[in-house]
Write a structure and sequence with these properties.
The protein is of the alpha+beta class. It has 2 domains: 3-83, OB fold (Dihydrolipoamide Acetyltransferase, E2P) (Beta Barrel), CATH 2.40.50.140; 95-126. 27% of the residues lie in helices and 27% in strands. The protein has 2 helices and 5 strands; from the N terminus they run αβββββα. It has helices at residues 3-9, 99-126; strands spanning 15-24, 27-32, 37-41, 62-70, 76-79. The chain has a 5-stranded mixed barrel. The relative contact order is 0.15.
């Protein structure tokens, strides 16, 4: 099977290995199976923020990529990010679930209401 025929077998959604041939500030260029070319944009490298492509990829490295689109010139746009699940996010602790916080909040609200009542009372007595 010649390389042109192999290129035709790649479709959007396929996950294929790709060899990094060049790294740029905005992404990396890969050689896909059958000699096809692919480009991975910096936003499609990882689920986390990628500031430097070289922190995630190296030239000659082989990575699995998902084909996300085909350009008019036959080159592919690919993604590593879409081949993996995002890491589960840590749940933020909720102050509302902490009974100690609820207790402190009630105490603060009570003292605050008391101070406000005292201020109003003092104003009333000082008026002529």
């Amino acid at each position: 099977m010649n390389s042109e025929a192999k290129k035709q077998n790649l479709e959007i959604g396929d996950i294929v290995p790709g060899k990094v041939v060049k790294i740029t500030n905005f992404g990396a260029f890969l050689e896909l199976e059958g000699g096809s070319s692919g480009m991975i944009h910096i936003s499609e490298i990882d689920h986390s923020l990628v500031k430097d492509v070289r922190d995630f990829l190296a030239e000659e490295q082989v990575v699995d990529v998902k084909i996300i689109s085909v350009k008019d010139d036959g080159k592919f746009a690919v993604s590593i990010k879409q081949t993996t699940e995002p890491a589960p996010q840590q749940k933020r602790s909720s102050y509302r679930k902490d009974p100690g916080f609820e207790k402190m909040l009630k105490k603060y609200m009570k003292s605050s209401e008391q101070r406000l009542a005292d201020i109003k009372k003092n104003r009333m007595t000082k008026r002529p």
